[in-house]
Amino acid sequence: RKKPPVQYVRCEIEGCGTVLAHPRYLQHHIKYQHLLKKKYVCDHPSCGRLFRLQKQLLRHAKHHTDQRDYICEYCARAFKSSHNLAVHRMIHTGEKPIQCEICGFTCRQKASLNWHMKKHDAESSYQFSCSICSKKFEKKDSVVAHKAKSHPEVLIAEALAANGGSVICSPGLIPEPARAPSPTQETAPELRQNPETVPVL
């Protein structure tokens, strides 16, 4: 069976946000992950987890045993499922078939892409960017503070160009000259160490 071309979509149900490889998988996801009730119960004494499908329960039951039937042909590491083996094998081959459509980030499994997409959700509120390094910020005042801290030389050059070569810098941008220690500060420790050398008046 030929796989459909990759066309990522996201589940828009509140609290989900799962990324799927094709729109046709979305209805299946909504049906079995959000609508179908969980009626299969794990009978392990310390578990009791619920599942919607019996095959999900059978796959889960392997976690309570140490049975590992799937072995990596590169390093002989054993796994409990063929899916885990397939993901692990990509470490040896260097394959990263899943790609973020926003920034081009690549990864080996959809769980990593789901976690990565949360970064873009957080960055969507960052509307102000630095004109020098393109770093984004949530507030305009944060951009001004960022430029003063990270790009002071650029701000000075822009001020010089705007004022015909003369500019008054803020005190924070000009280092204070080092002060020479007074003679009293230099000799005081010696006088304390050798009190006999103090002249008597």
Automatic annotation (TrEMBL):
Database matches in InterPro entries: Zinc_finger_trans_reg, Znf_C2H2_sf, Znf_C2H2_type
Any one GO CC term of the record: nucleus
GO MF: transcription coregulator activity; ubiquitin protein ligase activity; zinc ion binding
Ranges in a coiled coil: none
Reaction equations catalysed: S-ubiquitinyl-[E2 ubiquitin-conjugating enzyme]-L-cysteine + [acceptor protein]-L-lysine = [E2 ubiquitin-conjugating enzyme]-L-cysteine + N(6)-ubiquitinyl-[acceptor protein]-L-lysine
Domain C2H2-type: 40-69, 70-97, 98-125, 128-151
Annotated EC: 2.3.2.27
SMART domains attached to this UniProt entry: ZnF_C2H2 (SM00355)
Pathway: Protein modification; protein ubiquitination
The family this protein is said to belong to: Belongs to the krueppel C2H2-type zinc-finger protein family.
Protein name: E3 ubiquitin-protein ligase ZFP91
Organism lineage string: Eukaryota, Metazoa, Chordata, Craniata, Vertebrata
Gene: ZFP91
